[in-house]
Design goal:
The protein is an alpha/beta fold. The chain folds into three domains: 172 residues, Conserved hypothetical protein from pyrococcus furiosus pfu- 392566-001, ParB domain (Alpha-Beta Complex), CATH 3.90.1530.10; 47 residues, no CATH class; 66 residues, no CATH class. It is 49% helix and 13% strand. It contains 13 helices and seven strands. The chain is elongated, with a radius of gyration of 25 Å.
Length: 299
């Protein structure tokens, strides 16, 4: 089996550090880690850019700033056959073109495809430029295309492993809900509640209600709880050895279930048998199991 690729764990500034000699000219065949002025027409977009949506209004504002002050922070590029390929800084590049610049300051360096993808994602995540779905898709690309684990992805973007895993869980939502999350129609908090609903029709119905009525996360949680209670038979013969709970005890168990679901981010069940019982926790993959074990037992 091929060795696993080393994850980037130091952030973008460390990625761009190098002991290479300064660039004597702006020719694309030369190597450098120092800032160089390069022909903006020679810079091609990064095909691995995880960010897909660029707000035109904020781009115009940045372009106005560049006209007045210039490009304060250089972009990062690698040399290509016909010029340069952008590694990071696409928003600055687009704004510089809108501002009419012919040259742009850049770090020129050598980088393979995996490094380009990782650098682009690290920059966007650390600058909080990605919407939640773009961020989740970026993490999945790192795992699939760079053969990285949840732990390695977490180190590369300076986030906790559970944070990365929770973002990846957003990709289980129906496409309509993912689009709404991407466009800011619902929050990540809303989305996490919807993930815990097994029925897709119910997920979409609640999503539409959130948009139409501006429901808070707490209100969505209440509706989900009421929906579960409505589907639970009022009179149910307990399994052999399991006692019927009083209304007070049943409410207490439901409270514990709600707390555990919120804490663990997955479906949880509690079964009472007299003074004994068991807790059932669902997981959906090996990575999900490891995430739950980390939450319960710690590292």
């Amino acid at each position: 089996m091929a060795p696993r690729k080393e994850a980037l764990g130091r952030g973008l500034s460390a990625i761009l550090e190098s002991n290479e000699e300064p660039l004597a000219s702006a020719h694309p065949s030369r190597r450098a880690s120092q800032i160089s002025e390069i022909d903006i027409a020679l810079v091609q977009p990064n095909p691995m850019q995880p960010r897909k949506d660029f707000d035109e209004e904020t781009l115009m504002e940045l372009a106005d700033s560049i006209r007045r002050l210039g490009v304060i922070q250089p972009v990062a590029v690698r040399t290509g056959e016909q010029g340069y390929e952008l590694i990071s800084g696409e928003r600055r590049l687009r704004a510089a073109r809108l501002a009419g610049l012919e040259r742009i300051p850049a770090y020129v360096r050598e980088a393979d495809a995996d490094s380009m993808l990782q650098m682009a994602i690290v920059e966007n995540v650390q600058r909080e430029n990605l919407n939640p779905i773009e961020e989740a898709l970026a993490y999945r690309r790192l795992m699939e295309e760079c053969d990285m684990t949840h732990e390695e992805v977490a180190r590369s973007v300076a986030k906790s492993r559970s944070a990365v895993t929770n973002m990846l869980r957003l990709l289980r939502l129906p496409p309509l809900v993912q689009t709404g999350l991407r466009d800011g129609e619902v929050s990540v908090g809303h989305a996490r509640v919807l993930i815990g609903i097994a029925d897709e029709k119910t997920q979409i119905a609640l999503f539409e209600a959130i948009k139409a009525k501006g429901l808070s996360v707490r209100e969505v949680e209440r509706r989900v709880r009421e929906n579960r209670e409505a589907k639970t038979p009022k009179i149910k013969k307990p399994p052999q050895g399991e006692t019927t709970l009083s209304k007070r005890d049943a409410l207490q168990v439901e409270k514990y279930v709600s707390q555990l679901r919120s804490r663990l981010g997955t479906r949880v069940g509690i079964r009472r048998q007299g003074n004994r019982g068991r807790i059932e926790i669902e997981y959906y993959s090996g990575e999900d199991l490891e995430r739950l074990l980390e939450l319960i037992a710690g590292k």
